[in-house]
Design a protein that fits this description.
Length: 493
């Protein structure tokens, strides 16, 4: 990182404030569009499989670009990266806001994502180098407040906007805010970067793009195309082989684009495994609860957003508190307690019925999000704390990449598990009917089989979370390791 930040005894609060405002609107954008998808489908004349690319492409671009951020953070100043990221995000927002055709909207969304992909690792890296280990939990807790609160209010706010205005207002509302943040960054960020002689390895970028992009595309498409589709298993195989080649190439480069030596540090490796496993399971709640509420219980999208809002806000505002507790007690106890809560609440969600009340859903979801708030930040911060400062860009890039990949894999697996169980139950219930089932009976079979599929997916999620709970008992409080002169042969202390 640049010297102006490294050698400053007082954290650069002005830089952090500008970065956090920029990060807030980019994070908000990640969930802002979901509620508007039906309106976009109707106006632009596209089907569900096509409109989903507005979300899938955002994930793909993040998965492709985030691995390159370790190189970018080492090569360029915070000011330059921030201005580039916000410029791309603002440009994408303007394009999407005036899109009259779906391809134009998709291009705008992808340009937005290219700016967002740079923002999160950049902010995390600045925070790591700006605060000592003893205060880092509190600092990362404030960062978590931004990270969690923005996506939390996204669905509810966008639901209100779409109900009263055209869906383009979602982009028009963000555009002036993004422009103001860009102007603030231009005048307030003054840090400079000493010239760094780092070679840009284009072939590594190509391998990373094909590897992470192939995996994300394959797993994201499995829910709609099915695992038997050549487009699904073909891209997953190509992505896995490219990723293996990418990893092998990084071990041979003198200065790797993404340094996999971070996994030599046991607490970072353990944190990565826990968060990957947990991310795969947690997506069950984000996907299945809205499906259950709207399809089984008949709750409107706006009411569903309001039902999930208390949990999301609780998760966000617990983040600074969890950060302070982490600084005082470490991450092990917090993680174990949080994972116990997440396990119990996820198991409770595997027993949903046609009579489960709105209030019960709200309380269970809020409790589950409370448990999450005790896990994610302590685990990841404890892992990053063991890395030497030279590895911070690689650690943050690796964390964010793994989050994208595990989220996509978890989404695909849980949708497949739910769909297979649903199909099996539907066939079983239909076979039990004597004679020709009426339309009313068929509708009841559809609902009962869907409920069974959702419950089974939550049950599988519970067992996945238990794996993270067991691993959490091995967490030890970590401090930064000292790196030797040759970073390629460093050993963790």
């Amino acid at each position: 990182m640049n010297q102006s930040i490294d050698n400053n005894e007082r954290p650069p609060y002005l830089i952090l404030a500008v970065l956090m405002i920029g990060a807030f609107i980019t994070f908000l954008n990640s969930t802002f569009l979901n509620v508007a998808l039906p309106s976009i489908m109707a106006e632009l004349g596209v089907d569900t499989a096509t409109v989903q690319w507005l979300s899938t492409s955002y994930m793909l671009i993040n998965g492709i670009l985030i691995p390159t951020t370790a190189f970018l953070i080492q090569k360029y100043s915070v000011r330059r990266l921030f201005l580039v990221a916000m410029s791309l995000f603002t440009l994408g927002t303007i394009i999407a806001g005036f899109a009259g055709f779906f391809p134009i909207l998709l291009v705008g969304r992808m340009v937005q994502a290219s700016g967002s992909a740079i923002m999160m690792p950049l902010l995390m890296n600045v925070m790591l180098v700006s605060f000592p280990v003893a205060k880092r939990g509190t600092a990362m807790g404030v960062f978590g407040l931004i990270l969690m609160f923005a996506p939390a209010i996204g669905p509810t706010l966008s639901g209100w906007i779409v109900e009263h205005y055209d869906w383009r207002m979602l982009f028009h509302l963000i555009t002036p805010i993004a422009l103001v943040v860009l102007i603030l960054g231009f005048f307030l960020l003054k840090d400079k970067k000493d010239k760094v002689d780092i070679h840009f390895d284009l072939f590594s970028v190509v391998l990373s793009t094909i590897g992470f992009g192939g995996l994300l595309y394959g797993f994201s498409s499995a829910g709609t195309m099915g695992w038997g589709s050549p487009a699904v298993y073909g891209t997953i195989i190509i992505g896995a082989l490219s990723l293996l080649w990418f990893i092998l190439r990084q071990t041979k480069l003198k200065v790797p684009m993404l340094n996999f030596n971070v996994f030599k540090y046991p607490m970072f490796s353990l944190a990565s495994i826990i968060t990957v496993v947990l991310n795969m399971a947690l997506f069950s709640g984000f996907l299945l609860i809205p499906i259950y509420a709207q399809t089984i219980l008949g709750i409107s999208p706006m009411e569903t957003g309001l039902m999930m809002l208390p949990g999301a806000i609780l998760n966000a505002f617990m983040s600074p508190i969890t950060g302070r507790l982490f600084d005082k007690f470490g991450g092990r106890g917090l993680s174990i307690l949080g994972l116990l809560v997440v396990t119990l609440t996820t198991y409770s969600f595997s027993n949903l019925s046609f009579d489960t009340s709105y209030t019960t859903l709200m309380i269970l979801h809020a409790a589950r999000m409370f448990g999450m708030s005790l896990v994610m930040m302590p685990v990841s911060t404890n892992g990053l704390n063991q890395l030497p400062p030279q590895y911070y860009p690689h650690g943050t890039a690796m964390n964010n990449t793994l989050n994208q990949v595990s989220g996509a894999i978890g989404t695909a697996l849980l949708i497949t598990i739910m769909s297979n169980r649903e199909a099996g139950l539907a066939a079983q219930l239909t076979a039990e009917v004597t004679g020709q089932p009426t339309a009313e009976m068929q509708q009841q079979i559809v609902l009962e089989s869907m409920l069974g599929g959702i419950n089974f997916a939550f049950l599988v999620s519970t067992f996945i979370i238990v794996i993270s709970l067991i691993l959490a008992f091995f967490i030890k409080r970590s401090t930064p390791s000292v790196i030797v002169s040759d970073p390629r042969h460093s050993k963790p202390e």
